[in-house]
Amino acid sequence: QVQLVESGGGVVQAGGSLRLTCAVSGRIFNANVVGWYRQAPGKQRELVATIRSGDTTNYSDSVKGRFTISRDGTKNTVSLQMSSLKPEDTAVYYCNAVFWGINSWGQGTQVTVSS
């Protein structure tokens, strides 16, 4: 079972920046895909960004141009750099990894953007 541990959440003012990091217990370059999802109160969990082999990235339209996903094979981490944050970015952010078709989730980290 792959373990994922997120860190870096917090409270920030609108327009500010935060960096989330997810430590992955497996070799991150063995993953089919790793990424970040978020869930706001009363809403369904939604994709934020993913990165897969060849460093191919995918972003939701709502964060494109503001967020950047990256991974570090030496540290086995996946990060999400968030800039120009908006109050609507407030949510619990979850790290996700798919190894050999098996989906694993972290426990989430809260991001709150105040107006």
List keywords for this structure.
0% helix, 115 residues, 56% strand, seven-stranded mixed β-sheet, 11 strands, four-stranded antiparallel β-sheet, mainly beta
Task: Give a brief description.
With 115 residues, the chain is mainly beta. The protein has no helices and 11 strands.
Give a written overview of the molecule:
Strands 2, 4, 5, 6, 9, 10 and 11 form a seven-stranded mixed beta sheet that branches. By secondary structure, the chain is mostly beta strands. 0% of the residues lie in helices and 56% in strands.
Fraction of residues in helices? Answer: under 10%
Low-confidence stretches: none
H and E string: EEEEEEEEEEE
Structural class: mainly beta
Number of helices: 0
Instruction: Estimate the strand proportion.
Output: over 45%
Which overall shape is indicated by the principal axes computed on the Cα atoms?
globular
Euclidean distance between termini CA atoms: 39 Å
Radius of gyration: 13 Å
| Count of extended strands | 11
Please describe the biggest sheet, giving its number of strands, its sense, and whether it closes into a barrel.
7 strands, mixed
Mean pLDDT across residues = 95
